[in-house]
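quick one if you have a minute, typing this from the bus. theres a chain ive been looking at and ive put its sequence and its fold in token form underneath. please have a look and point out which stretches look like helix strand or loop to you. anything you notice is useful, everything is just below.

***
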Amino acid sequence: MSKPESLVLFLFVLLLLAHLLGALCVRLRQPRVVGEILAGVLAGPALLGRLEFFPRPGTHHQPALDFLYAFGLLMLMFLSGAGIHSLFHPDDRRKIVWLTSFGTVLPFLIATALSMSLPLDSLMGPAGHPVALLLIIGISVSITSIPVISRIFQDLQVMHTRFARLVLGVAVVEDIALWAGLAGALSLARASALPWSDITKHITVTVLYMVLGLFLVPRVLQWLHAARWNPLARMSPVTQVVLLLLAYAAVAELLDINQVFAGFLAGLAASRNSSFTQETLDSIAGLSNSLFIPLYFALVGYKLALINALSPGMLCAFLVVACVIKLASVGLGARLAGFPSSDALNLAVATNARGGPGIAVASVAFDAGIISPAFYTTLVAVAVLTSQAAGAWLSAVLRRGQSLLSDGPGSEAAAERAPSAARTDVPSGHAGATARIPGTHRAFVALNLMHEDSKGRQRP
């Protein structure tokens, strides 16, 4: 008599492996996300999945796994949005414009132009929409990971520097623009069999949803928080934030908009609302980084194990081309902005980290049928490898005793001579660590794509 499948036991093993392998990767100076994805691969059908009590793909447990996968992605995007604060110091705006114009727009245009001249059959998913695929390729080449690069800066104790402020400022503009592009790609893929009038309508609804969610809802939240009849504002601010997230997601579902945008916009709204304290957001981040986000990345690895469609040739080609385009474009923008060659190289390598958002783009595009299984695997691998490379490069620069930016006002060298109040408030490596960046009026949450410290604990 065979033993029944146990979803609870599977989740226990999956979460345990995700934290253990994640902690091991941190000790090896690798991104925690690598260990979490590896945990899902180990739990796949080729290894631990052979055990009788592990759920089989497609069984009645699949809806529960799909929910945890979707909710983990929702929380990842919420925390990414919640980590965006006022990062645009007046002295940096011109340089951020240069870096964004050449580091985001130029790679996007080059990648899409090159792709138009290549056969795309091996990259295209069942949706069969070449324009949507071109958008995904351009986004995947251009995107920068806010959570991963934030954690790298935190670990290297440079979050208080102008270098961190510049990179995060560019990443904020990039992510907002590229997520809007992803919305267009999803609209095209879902409406591939519809007339252009319906496609235009769906894109317009998506843009309106993003604009209203970005500018109108935060003002409404301020009014609701001040209302005397609102007991949640005083009794349970965490519940208020969770309800905000679910409201964004519910409206997105009703409008047939991918909920990844709901999470990102809800995080932006929460970060811009002064009524939500940092303690409230850190409480949500603590649970998400301990449970939902590790499970999400583990389930990404589990899906990779089920697909088993790695193409080494495709991976090597896309990795080289994407990195060359991104590094050269950002480097050119940095040089035109007045940075010396060494600074331009450091900025280029830092913005080349794709991390969680890169994996999220791949997941959303694959679920929508825009990309093939082999290309999905390629995009996930590129996101992980570029994040590893960014951390290793910046760490090596600092170990050589060099600054990430040349000596001058706001540089790393100048920051080292600055008062200790400008430094991170929490030691590097701790979850929820906060760093006050010069020129900002709020603390920036170093969101933990790689989550807590090596012991998996949060520190006050």
Q: What stands out?
A: The first strand starts at residue 434 and ends at 435. The chain has a mean pLDDT of 77.
